[in-house]
Design goal:
alpha/beta; 6-stranded mixed sheet; disordered N terminus
Amino acid sequence: MRASNTFRVLTNATVVLVLLVSCVMVLAVTATTSARAASPAMAPATTGSAAMASGGAVNVSKQANSNAAASKERVKMMLKKIHWLGHDCFRIDTENVIYLDPLELKQGAASADIILVTHDHFDHCSPADVAKIQKKGTVIVTTADCAKKLSGETKIVKPGDKITVKGVTIEAVPAYNIDKKFHTKDKGWVGYIITVGGTRIYHAGDTDLIPEMKTFKADIAFLPVSGIYVMTAEEAAKAADAIKPQMAIPMHYGVIKDLGTDKDAATFKEKCSVPVEILKLEK
């Protein structure tokens, strides 16, 4: 009897163990099947995320191309409004008539809304020429030493200043010689970056190739090329490389005797890595 009872207990235990093992196996199979069933549903989600990321990148690229095209068109239109009047003198005809370093202007020249003067050398700060284009409301932006020679509404700037005149943003930037004594840094003379119609225009003034140029952001750059008192044509090409404008325009040549020639402008264009427009002298 005892042997029989023991046999029955062992048999019952075995059955229970078999049942437990069967349950575990069933659960394992169910889990594996569920995981496999879930995988196809997850794949489209991953694919969708990748597609969204790819689409976003395409949109960003398209927007960048669109912005670049718009900027290029603005520069193209602005070039039609820029007039080189000789040496470092330019007139920009926008909503405001803007002159930079007016020199040897004819009587009857268009009146100015804004006049910018870079420094007090005679070929840049000419009180007689400023007077020819002044009218009621004309604002002159210049350095402190030039302001003493000029009359009318004047705003004094130094390198690093940023002001707004008649809706035009004007940044005064450094302009000086590295290895010459004609335009020393301590003078506080300037170039200008003006923003007109969304286009940034840099007028370098009288300067050498200086480290600060690497920080300048401009769409159009007026750069001196004559050498002697300012950069040579080759140095000006390096300046253009540093600034990377969409268009560079040579200046400081062809008007004052023995101070730069058309050949300097041509050399600048040949050496420059950015597009160059040699403007026709207007008088």
